[in-house]
Amino acid sequence: MSVRGKSLFSLSTLLASFFGAAMIAAAFAYFNYKFSEYKFIDFREWIFYEKSDIFTPTHDKYIVVFYSSKEKNTAQLLSNTDINLPILAIDYYNEVFENSKNTTFLRSGTKNSLSFIQRFNIYESPSIFFIKKSKDSLYKQDSMIRKLDNLKELASKVKSL
Questions:
Q1: Average pLDDT taken over every residue of the chain
Q2: Rg for the chain (alpha carbons), in Å?
Q3: Over the stretch 45-73, which tens digit does the pLDDT of each residue have?
Q4: Mind spelling out the 3-state secondary structure of the chain?
Q5: Chain centre to alpha carbon of residue 11
């Protein structure tokens, strides 16, 4: 009788260990999925400004660049970038810059900026990703977020995304 009890105890310990490992693996997989899923941005709810006007998207696809205007020549490099897709350049410090042919400089309030950073899990500057139109003013993230070592590599990074 004691032999049988001992084997049941070993089996239950083995099952408990397996169940615990499976729970940890499931939690890890869930959080990896949760942080890698693509996010949405609704430009009716999230207000961005071009100079003093409210930004209204007109294209089906954009490159979003989140950057710091305190880094040397960033606005100039963004203005002079020649890419087939329009660029939405969102400045962490909300400086006002003149739009160029392909680049629209956006700014927003602190609450909106912090919500944007949190929604898209942006931890480094400059960061880049694509968005594409889902319907009306609703856009979906269409690529992973990548950190640029510098804005000079923007054109080559866009081709790799």
A1: 83
A2: 23
A3: 999 999 889 999 999 999 999 999 998 88
A4: CHHHHHHHHHHHHHHHHHHHHHHHHHHHHHHHHHHHCCCEEECCCCCCEECCEECCCCCCEEEEEEECCCCCCHHHHHHCCCCCCCEEEEECCCCCCCCCCCEEEEECCHHHHHHHHHHCCCCCCCEEEEEEEEECCEEEECCCCEECCCHHHHHHHHHHC
A5: 46
pLDDT at residue 8 in the model: 53
Counting residues of the chain whose pLDDT is more than 70, the rounded percentage is 81
Pick from 131, 125, 129: nearest CA to 151: 125
Q: Are strands 87-91 and 103-106 parallel, antiparallel or unpaired?
A: parallel
What local confidence, expressed as pLDDT, does residue 2 receive?
47
Beta strands 49-50 and 138-141, pairing class: unpaired
In this prediction, residue 84 carries a pLDDT of: 87
Of 131, 111, 129, 133, nearest to 121 (Cα)? 129
Give mean pLDDT, residues 11-39.
72
CA distances from 101 to 36, 80, 98, 104, 119 (A): 32, 9, 10, 8, 28
